[in-house]
Amino acid sequence: MGYTVGRLAGKFGLARSTLLYYERIGLLAPSERTAAGYRLYSAEDAARLSRICRFRDAGVPLREIADILVGSQSDLSVILETRLRALDQELERIRFQQEFIARLLRNREILEDASERDEETWQKAIRASGLTDESIRRWHEEFASADPEGHRAFLRALGYPVDENDLIQTLGKAPHHLRRINIMSERFMEIFMETLSPLTLQGPSGREHTLRALRMIPELPQRPRIADIGCGTGLAALILAQETDGVIEALDSHKPFLERLESAAAAKGLTERIKIIHGDMAALPFAPESLDVIWAEGSAFIIGFDRALEEWRPLLKDGGCLCISELAWLTDNPSREAAEYWQGVYPEMRTINALKQAIAERGYTVIGSFTLAESAWRDYYAPFPKRLAEQRLKYAGDEEALAVLDNFQAELDAFEKFREFYGYEFLVARKAD
Q1: Options 3.30.300.30, 2.170.120.20, 3.40.605.10, 3.40.50.150; CATH of 207-431
Q2: Which CDD domains match (predicted)?
Q3: Which regions in the chain score pLDDT beneath 70?
Q4: CA–CA distance from 275 to each of 59, 237, 290 (Å)?
Q5: d(Cα 431, Cα 362) in Å, to the nearest integer?
């Protein structure tokens, strides 16, 4: 089905008369007409109009745009148009941020001391600014993506403690519900962790992947000191204790996971080799240059990949190694749907090359890397359908609990639809001199 003049003009924020003018000067003509003589524009016409608007916004005169459009689509022109489109999108994001901030600055209620503002006042102030739920969500996502530390500082200024900030960013909650999250986050996390707790895996993983990364480390001292950060139930910690002669210091913030690890270590006779630490990834209890290896399977995202690289490096001894896995794009050109989904869930995700560059820029030398096999994801997700069904039955009618379960289901659905575009990359790097 094609576009009418009005629909196509509305799609690009143009006046109907503008399209008629473009037709008159030979810049854009409708592909067909209805039996009654009305103009109909095709998807190809819409794509052409998108290019026209992009060139026009860049300051190219209409007569020159016509010449560009009739020219051949060489590799160079495609590259330049792609770059122009990216710049246009960046300018749009900047304009959106400017408008959003201006609205906040015009509303004095929003700028008052957060401690003096209750939920009702906050929501009233937001509505008075003319801001929609979607615009607020988008603004926070873009702010957090462009300047994570600045966004954290902004949230702290509103009176939200660090752990609540992490909850908002990690679980992808819409920040316009900040006050609601501040009240319900303990329960949200309770349901979230309750759902995960009985499962064997807390993320894509597997013995073969842990061993493969371990074997990439060039050399270990006789009794290496290894910190497993965000260890979960300790599958990696147990393997590391079995495969090395070191002491494994396994840290996690969720006590039930640590209790399971403690039981498993006792059953395998590894109690003396695994030191269990109930702690915070953002405030590690290790002295500078005290660790031979830092191990972090699928956990660095909680505080941010770049932040983890920066804060953990000083803890490594000279020549110490970081073994870390992180979600990554497997292509520079994921589908639009995949990009939109992950922009809402984890906007910090980047390509494998970008991860390696970030590692190198922060004082490490990449030794090697590999992408986790699809089987690692299948093993992780296998028990979820049954577990989610159990939880839905238990929490039927409980909107807050069901929202947590919906997040899990959305992740399962995304994997089935988009798995060719993303994966977990396991990277091994040595602290550079």
Answers
A1: 3.40.50.150
A2: AdoMet_MTases
A3: 1, 71-84, 86, 96-97, 100-142, 144-149, 151-152, 154-186
A4: 63, 10, 15
A5: 9
**pTM score, whole prediction:** 0.61
Q: Considering only CA atoms, which of 191, 216, 173 is closest in space to residue 428?
A: 216
Nearest to 55 by CA among 22, 93, 81: 81
Residue reference for tokens 């913030």: 253
The HSE-up count of residue 350 (CA atoms within 13 Å, CB side) is 14
Q: Count the neighbouring beta carbons within 10 Å of the beta carbon of residue 23.
A: 14
pLDDT digits (tens, 9 = 90+) for 325-378: 999 999 999 998 998 888 878 888 999 999 999 999 999 999 999 999 999 999
d(CA 132, CA 130): 7
**Alpha helices in 245-327, H assignment, sequence order:** 255-267, 305-312
Q: What is the largest CA-CA distance in the chain?
A: 86
Residue intervals in the chain for CATH 3.40.50.150: 207-431
Q: Enter the tokens of residue 368.
A: 């090697």
Pairing of strands 247-252, 350-351: unpaired
pLDDT at residue 184 in the model: 40
CA-CA-CA-CA torsion sign (267, 273, 277, 283): negative
- The SS3 call for residue 423 is strand
Sign of CA dihedral 296, 302, 305, 306: negative
The torsion defined by the Cα of 17, 20, 24 and 25, in degrees rounded to 10, comes to 70
Fold of 5-71: Multidrug-efflux Transporter Regulator; Chain: A; Domain 2 (1.10.1660)
DSSP state of 433: -
Question: How many Cβ atoms are within 10 Å of 204's Cβ, its own excluded?
Answer: 23
Q: What is the pLDDT of residue 176?
A: 34
DSSP secondary structure string, 129-194?
A: TT--HHHHHHHHHHHHHH-HHHHHHHHHHTT--HHHHHHHHHHT--GGGHHHHHHHHHHHHHHHHH
Q: What SS3 state is found at 292? A: strand
78-127 pLDDT per residue, tens: 656 666 676 777 777 777 667 766 666 666 555 555 455 554 555 566 56
